[in-house]
Design brief:
122 residues; elongated; single chain; 79% helix
Length: 122
């Protein structure tokens, strides 16, 4: 689980960097698309590691975090779908409102908090 948390925190840091520029309206750096790609790949790797980790070592029910794993998986899946929506809009040359970016970030951060609780109590 710790590896999944590290991947997710790294993806969150990259996403935070990307979102600041996006919301300010400044053009991304020359390799901005590559940072976005790394952000998505690292986030997906975190979800994959979480799925594998939960399959091998489910969180103990005695700690009260038994449902956190499934919740985190579902939220990360939703975050990936919202991220794909952002990518599709960028490919079409459209600029989405900050609400979509904020929803993507909020859902992902909520999942990271759930994974953090599993790691801390597990």
């Amino acid at each position: 689980m710790t590896i999944a948390l590290v991947f997710l925190l790294l993806a969150a840091a990259l996403g935070g960097y990307l979102s600041i520029g996006y919301l300010r309206g400044t053009p991304p750096p020359a390799a901005g698309w590559m940072l976005g790609l790394v952000h998505g790949v690292v986030g997906a790797a975190g979800l994959l590691e979480l799925v594998i980790g939960l399959d091998r070592h489910p969180p103990p029910a005695a700690d009260g975090v038994a449902g956190f794993g499934v919740g985190a998986e579902a939220l990360l899946g939703l975050a990936i779908l919202l991220g794909l929506l952002v990518i599709m809009a960028a490919w079409r040359g459209k600029r989405l409102s900050g609400v979509v970016i904020g929803a993507h970030a909020s859902v992902a951060i909520t999942a990271i908090v759930l994974v953090s609780a599993i790691v801390a109590l597990g």
